[in-house]
Fold:
Amino acid sequence: MRKTRATMHGAISIVNAIATGNGSSLGISLRVTAEAELGRGRGVRFLTGRNEDRLVNNIVRNTMPKEMIENNLITIRVKSEIPIGYGLKSSSAVSNAVALACSRLARDDIDEDTVLDAAVRASLDAKVSMTGAYDDATACYFGGFTVTDNYSRKLIRREPAPENLHSIIFLPRNIPRGDVHRLSTLSDLFTDAFRLAEAGEYWKAMKLNGVLACAALSSRYAPIMATLEHGALAAGISGNGPSVAAVAYEDEVDEIQSALSKFEGRTIISKVNNQRASVEILNG
Structure:
């Protein structure tokens, strides 16, 4: 029977979109793969290893013809390198990967806008995103920098990032996420951060976003400051936290990682990603 595999990458925040509906993200190389397979039977079976069955079910039904689901067993497998629940766009990466694998399973031609739209709609329906996270979805799909209007699903700006950049991601231990609804209290200042990203001033935008997100979410700023003091180009809270993401050239990575070691948690190093998503037919 026919089987497909899609490969997607993760992302980190430049500007959080919750406050204004406008956001910016940067692709990183942590990877998600999703396989979709047609078999004998009917309905949808999930072998995801994740607690996202509702999200995956929504994506399958948004991307595949009803008669194909009714006349076949659709099996979905997901593998992810992205830590869940830290603001590293794991849901967007999974949504995109499943949508792309299912779209290729159902038809030979792939329309990227349709794939992204299906992933965003499924995220909203499953309530894993407040805005649909179009900024995250596009950064995961295309790589590089993306700047978006999430509510209208408009890609305002997209460009590759320098290839010699790395993201240093700090995952604090036993730190809960803050109240994301408080982000809107600082919406005028998040608009300023977005304007910087819109103008291509990504590092200024990311640093301002970091200050604002820490203030609104009651997060510690010390790990962010430590990365900046040791050579990071920019740093901030990724998504709604609690992870801290810094961006630096390769020569600065070890020193930044050492500076973060005094805080309780663990660190992941990932190259910045400019590679767009891909999908292949495995058989059939």
About this structure: The chain has nine helices and eleven strands. The mean pLDDT is 91. The two ends are 6 Å apart (CA to CA). The longest strand covers residues 22-39.
